[in-house]
Write a structure and sequence with these properties.
Length: 487
């Protein structure tokens, strides 16, 4: 009785008025669903419905009323916010509406109709889609969609340069990206681990109690690939080497070692790796030299694209389309597509809530027709859901200290001077007063600026040395002189 996730969420929302009177178990929710949504086993249903409920919990639409560990029974009820928005009496499904829930993604009927055709004519790689593309002139994203994506990004404080300089914000965004993108990218490849199990696995490493060996490896490989991107975002250039590095990290211990990070080519049996896409009439390139040329051309063109959304979508589409590797091409395209957004300090796309079928159908349609518009709708929908997810994360930690952000550079510069010039104890305060006047700190900010600087000096440790421009010996000399002066 495997539940079709894309259909289930509206039905759970429609049950909320009834849940106001009592909390429901997962089993009760399953029983209440119409039969046309069920197929397969009860156990599969529970795993999938729990994934849907987790999504609704994160959206603050439902909450867990009680959890009994021994029986693994979860009692679900509407959240406080949802209760305030629901009618007082139970109503029919058509009458219930809850705000803040995105409209369910609807696949383009053009795609559905096209893919229903049997015996579709085989098509090869159309090099014109890549070679004829002129960065900043031939845009894949139309102006209206680009405006919507930009507006979505601007919903978050993280879209501003100042906010992303706040250490806590940057860390939390990176942490959330690591979990959500690992989970969703793996889910789109058929991984059955839940979001909760993914999060636990990423913190406990290779715990055999979670999924199969392949599923665990897939999640942990996503972790190391995403960490590679985030940690090297300012130093790693966008090139074929970057793409191959990402592929290596994603496919390590899943493919044979000599396959990881290597384009398709002669295998040990001296045969070229032909590749077929299941369910598609698309036949990718087989010539290793041509593949190698295009895997270099994709990032070369992408680097010239000025808009980060266009750059991201360009990488997502073309890396998948080329099918340069024997496996893991879509995974590689998703991780690579996050680079432009992270580098531009925009919330990345973690591909939230898009169904495997919808994702693959739109991409397959592009493979066979080179019409990217249906897949752009997938990209936009997933980004909207990702933004909603990041909004919850940022709300949970509050806004960064705008005053500290405003004078971040000046405070660090001053701390470095105090240590290097051996300004100690009762000489520090007047030194700060003179420095503030010389460096045009706003007079209304004098008092708080001094308080924050003195606090930073008390909390300083070796991890901060490089950011204020001092080394261990300089700090030790300053600290010893302060101590001697006091004695």
């Amino acid at each position: 009785m495997a539940i079709r996730i894309k259909k289930i969420k509206p039905y759970i929302i429609n049950m909320l008025p009834t849940m106001k009177k009592e909390a429901w178990t997962v089993d009760k929710i399953i029983q209440a669903l119409p039969e046309e949504l069920k197929e397969g086993t009860q156990e599969t249903s529970k795993r999938r419905i729990n994934r849907t409920l987790q999504s609704l919990v994160e959206e603050k639409i439902v909450s867990i009323a009680d959890e009994t560990e021994k029986s693994h029974r979860y009692y679900i009820k509407p959240s406080k916010k949802a209760k305030e928005e629901l009618p007082t009496e139970s109503t029919s499904p058509e009458e219930v509406t809850v705000e803040h829930v995105s409209i369910e993604f609807k696949q383009s009927p053009v795609v559905t109709k096209y893919l229903l055709k049997k015996n579709r004519t085989a098509v090869g790689y159309k090099k014109e889609a890549l070679c004829d593309y002129i960065p900043n002139k031939n845009n894949l994203i139309d102006k209206e969609t680009l405006s919507r994506l930009t507006a979505l990004a601007q919903k978050l404080d993280v879209s501003t340069q100042a906010t992303m300089q706040a250490d806590t914000y940057t860390k939390r965004i990176a942490e959330r990206l690591l979990i959500d993108l690992s989970y969703n990218s793996a889910r789109l490849e058929g991984n059955t681990l839940s979001l909760l199990d993914t999060e636990k696995l990423l913190t406990t490493e290779d715990d055999p109690s979670y999924g199969t060996e392949t599923e665990r490896a897939m999640i942990l490989n996503h972790k190391q690939a995403i960490e590679f991107v985030v940690q090297n975002i300012d130093t790693q250039g966008l090139s074929d080497i970057t793409i191959k590095d990402i592929h290596y990290r994603l496919m390590e211990d899943i493919l044979p070692g000599w396959r990881c990070g290597q384009i398709r080519g002669p295998n040990p049996a001296h045969k070229n790796d032909g590749l077929m896409i299941t369910g598609s009439s698309y036949v990718p390139l087989e010539n290793p030299n041509t593949i190698d040329n295009y895997i270099k051309l994709i990032p070369a063109k992408a680097k010239k694209i000025e808009n980060p959304f266009e750059q991201s979508f360009f990488l997502l589409v073309h890396i998948a389309y080329l099918q340069a590797f024997v496996d893991g091409n879509k995974r590689t395209s998703r991780i690579a597509s996050s680079i432009p957004l992270v580098r531009a300090k925009l919330a990345p796309n973690s591909f939230m809530d898009i169904e495997v079928e919808d994702y693959n159908q739109a991409l397959m349609y592009f493979y066979e027709t080179c019409d990217h518009k249906p897949f752009l709708k997938v990209f936009e929908y997933a980004y909207e859901r990702s933004i909603e997810r990041f909004s919850v994360v940022l709300d949970s930690i509050g806004a960064p200290d705008s005053f500290r952000i405003k004078y971040r550079k000046q405070r660090k510069n001053l701390q470095g001077k105090i240590i290097k010039e051996l300004i100690i104890n009762n000489k520090i305060s007047p030194y700060i007063d003179e420095w503030m006047i010389r460096n045009k700190i706003e007079e209304k900010d004098f008092e708080l600026f001094k308080i924050e600087t003195l606090k930073d000096l008390k909390e300083i440790n070796s991890a901060r040395f490089s950011s204020i421009g001092v080394n261990q010996d300089e700090y030790d000399g300053w600290f010893v002189k302060q101590t001697e002066d006091l004695t």
